[in-house]
Write a structure and sequence with these properties.
alpha/beta; 613 residues; 2 domains; four-stranded antiparallel beta sheet; Rossmann fold; 20 helices; single chain
Length: 613
């Protein structure tokens, strides 16, 4: 017997303590795919800042050129207008805008490609995770993580490339110029104020981030509750629990509101402190410049230049707190999205996995044991075969492990021990795609996509022609019903197919399974949710569909499986009886007892119906 590690002991997520730098390292390869665009975008960034810094320098020259003329001969000043300087001033203004727009144009493809690539990678990975992950997680929270993570990539690039990096370049240029051209105190005051400003902003923002994280967590919880309630709209209505659902949602939103208020209060403290630092720094610099003008070491143009530099520096810094917070939040959102890629991919193809080759569809369960939770085993050393082209039914009470068989056959979970073979090939040694391509299922609860009937039938074989779709619908005896609808095959089925009745949904499921044309069929209590009339009608279609195919029927109503070649009776994960319908009745065991009970219940329902009639 081949022994596998118990999948129930596999953690749902590999623990990772990813830092911000780790997140950036993961993100950079996606951006570097367009490295020349990145290089040219950064060159444009530097060009824009050099042009922007040249604006106050030219303005200083204009003022210094005009000042002596205005003081001595005003009429001469008008005639001696510095046309060249004015043209250079205008050209520099235009160059700043052109370089900035060119930078954004060059980098747009880089950013959007990274967003698309990562989102698709996460989306594909989520589909590759086991059923265990999707049963444990709430869909609303996962989709919110992907949405926020994708948006955060654009935000992070925007804030770093369009705000932080340009500001750092400009700060470096301005401080270097002040140190080179003027008294050392100008650069000391500017640099000291900037350092103090940045440290204050980072510290306060770090403190504030806890409020934003709380807001995001509460936002996700509120969204999960809203989605869950709306998906279960009918259940809410059945029990008249609209007020209960509204109160639950209101409770979540109230907690979010309190966190938002605390966040806003801390923002006020941050803005006030930043304004105080800027006011003190600008005042100190202008005081030094004024003294320089008075003692003749600086001109009026120098005073204007220094003031313009301070304005250019501190206007973007005014938003540093917001930008830093958003960058931190963006990194957190990206990390949360990347963490989905850290989820343990429980079911994986082996490196040497080959496509499944089906000759007839002979299925073997060999000493299969399985547990969803290591503390409770569901199947115990179960062995049975379904010969090619035969129909085998599995019956038993709820919790006996019947539906688990289909999940293991589809390889939604790995067996704890033993193995499953199809035509002699262990399913763990073949590719998942080829395995699932050979199996078709008609489940008990058919969930349809919120799209047209044609789309849902064609889902059995994407790209199928309209003629093939209609042929499958005719085989499932639903074509006439579809044509009676105003929109025909374009009729929308609604969320999870709620616009269709149970029988209509089952026929759509049968049609798309016919279109898929699998070698192996699974009917997982496919008619148990239907009334007797619908069940009889659909049962004929299922019987027709299973002809010449290996078929596994998981059944609750024994009357639907009397035609099976073999019937297996499960009890608490163990096979206790096996044989044809007549053989099991003759055995007078558990199956015979179940048959007697169901026939008795059916007789009582028929008598009650006759009395009412």
């Amino acid at each position: 017997m081949r022994r596998n590690s118990s999948n129930s002991d596999i953690p749902a997520q590999r623990p990772r303590n990813r830092t911000d730098s780790d997140t950036l390292r993961m993100l950079l390869p996606y951006l570097w795919q367009y490295k020349w665009r990145v290089v040219f975008a950064i060159a444009c960034l530097v060009g824009a800042k050099v042009a922007n810094m040249g604006v106050p320098l030219v303005l200083k020259d204009i003022i210094d050129t005009l000042t002596p003329l205005i003081n001595s001969k005003p009429m001469l000043a008008a005639a001696a207008m510095p046309v060249t300087l004015l043209m250079v001033y205008g050209l520099l203004r235009l160059s700043t805008t052109v370089f900035t727009e060119l930078r954004e144009l060059l980098f747009a493809r880089v950013t959007q490609n990274a967003v698309r690539t990562i989102a698709i990678q996460v989306f594909d990975y989520l589909h590759a995770l086991s059923l265990r992950f999707h049963l444990d997680r709430q869909t609303g929270g996962v989709t919110r993580d992907i949405e926020r993570g994708s948006r955060a990539i654009s935000s992070l690039v925007s804030y770093t490339l369009y705000s932080i990096l340009p500001t750092l370049v400009e700060i470096t240029l301005v401080i270097a110029y002040l140190y080179w051209k003027y008294d050392v105190w100008f650069s000391i005051i500017t640099a000291s104020a900037l350092i103090f400003y940045i440290v204050f902003t980072v510290k306060v923002t770090e403190w504030r981030i806890q409020f934003r994280k709380t807001m995001n967590d509460l936002d996700s919880k509120a969204n999960v509750r809203a989605v869950d309630s709306l998906i279960n709209y009918e259940t809410v209505k059945y029990f008249g629990n609209e007020r209960f659902e509204s109160d639950r949602y209101n409770k979540s939103m109230t907690a979010w509101q309190e966190a938002a208020i605390r966040s806003q209060t801390s923002l006020t403290m941050l803005n006030t402190g930043q304004s105080a630092i800027i006011a003190l720094a600008v005042t100190a610099v202008l005081w030094r410049a004024t003294l320089g003008v008075l003692d003749g070491s600086m001109t009026l143009g120098d005073l204007v230049l220094v003031n313009a530099f301070m304005i250019q520096l501190y206007i973007p810094l005014n938003f540093l707190g917001v930008i830093y917070r958003e960058i931190k939040q963006s990194l957190a959102d990206i990390e949360r999205m990347f963490s989905l890629l850290d989820q343990n991919q429980e079911i994986q193809d082996t490196p040497d996995a080959k496509p499944l080759v089906v000759h007839g569809g002979h299925i073997q369960f060999q000493q299969v044991s399985f547990a969803y939770d290591s503390r409770r085993e569901v199947l115990h050393s179960l062995s049975f075969e379904i010969p090619a082209g035969h129909t085998v039914a599995v019956v038993g009470h709820s919790g006996a492990g019947k539906s688990t068989l289909s999940r293991l056959l589809y390889r939604f979970y790995e067996v704890s021990s033993g193995q499953i073979l199809i035509d002699g090939q262990p399913i763990q040694s073949v590719t998942q795609r080829s395995l699932r391509a050979q199996i078709g299922i008609v489940p008990q609860d058919t969930v349809l996509f919120n799209d047209s009937i044609a789309y849902n039938i064609a889902y059995g074989r994407p790209g199928a022609s309209q003629a093939d779709i209609e042929a499958a619908a005719k085989s499932a005896h639903i074509h006439d019903f579809i044509m009676s609808l105003p929109d025909g095959y374009n009729a929308q089925v609604g969320e999870r197919g709620l616009k269709l009745s149970g029988g209509e949904k089952q026929r759509v499921a049968i049609a798309r399974t016919i279109l898929k044309n699998p070698s192996i069929l699974i009917f997982d209590e496919a008619t148990s949710a239907l009334d007797s009339r619908s069940e009889r009608a659909i049962q004929n279609e299922l019987t027709e569909l299973s002809k010449n195919r290996t078929t596994l029927i998981i059944a609750h109503r024994l009357s639907t499986i009397v035609h099976a070649n073999q019937i297996l009776v499960l009890q608490q994960g163990e096979l206790i009886e096996a044989g044809s319908h007549s053989e099991l009745l003759a055995l007078n065991g558990e199956y015979a007892r179940m048959w007697s009970l169901q026939q008795h219940d059916q007789g009582n329902r028929s008598n009650d119906g006759n009395k009412m009639a």
